[in-house]
Amino acid sequence: MGGNRTGVQTAPEMAEELIAGAAAAGPSMDGGPEMADAERAEYISKGFPVGSLPGLAFAEEAKADDETIGMAVFLDKLSERLAFERMGTRLYDAFLVKCETLGEEGVGPTLAEVEEIRDEEHRHFLLLNEAVTELGGDPTVKSPCADVAAVASLGIMQVLTDPRTTVTQCLQALLTAELTDNAGWEMLIDVAEELGHSDLSERFTDALTNEQNHLLNVQTWLSDRVSAKL
């Protein structure tokens, strides 16, 4: 298994000493994990939001009609996809560098295929930017859902930019992104249809078709590379 020495079975005698030492050491304070849970619960109960969306809080406080509140929620989800497509473009930029550096192999994506997906992610970003503007929103606003999406995708970017990761490991991380992306577009299409924006729904459906192809490609490349090692 190479130089990996993280498992305790590599040095069972030292592992026994470690366990004995941990058992002999007393806790530094009274209480256990329940104290951390109680601390988290206190912060959660205070109800601090991740962020805010212009107009949403006012609309709720003013008891605005459902259409106004629905539009605010729609803009929040649009902002979420906008943030994710921006990150998606950067993810494939990073993956392209990885593939260029390590070189194309017998199985997996070609540089041209990676560039094509990167370009489609960027077009989706521009589509969402245009949609938000058409609805009277500000595409530069980081809404609550957009903020959460950006944080959630940070780990994927870390995998792709880590100099130690392989193309196969990067594809595994991209699979997580593409599964999330497909589900996000499906929800956005449902919301657009529910609010009567059939024109946007049609444009989003075209984007979903692209994303479904991205997912299929990533799944195929990953499967082929894993099978090649068997």
CATH homology group: Ferritin, core subunit, four-helix bundle
- The DSSP helix count reads 9
Second CATH tier, the architecture: Up-down Bundle
The low-pLDDT segments are none
Can you describe what's shown?
With 230 residues, the protein is an all-alpha fold. The protein has one domain (56-228): Ferritin, core subunit, four-helix bundle (Ferritin, Up-down Bundle), CATH 1.20.1260.10. Helices cover 73% and strands 0% of the residues. The chain is built from nine helices and no strands. It has helices at residues 12-24, 33-45, 56-61, 66-102, 111-134, 144-152, 154-161, 167-194, 198-228. The mean pLDDT is 89.
Summarize the model shown.
This protein has 230 residues and is mainly alpha-helical. It has one domain (56-228): Ferritin (Up-down Bundle), CATH 1.20.1260.
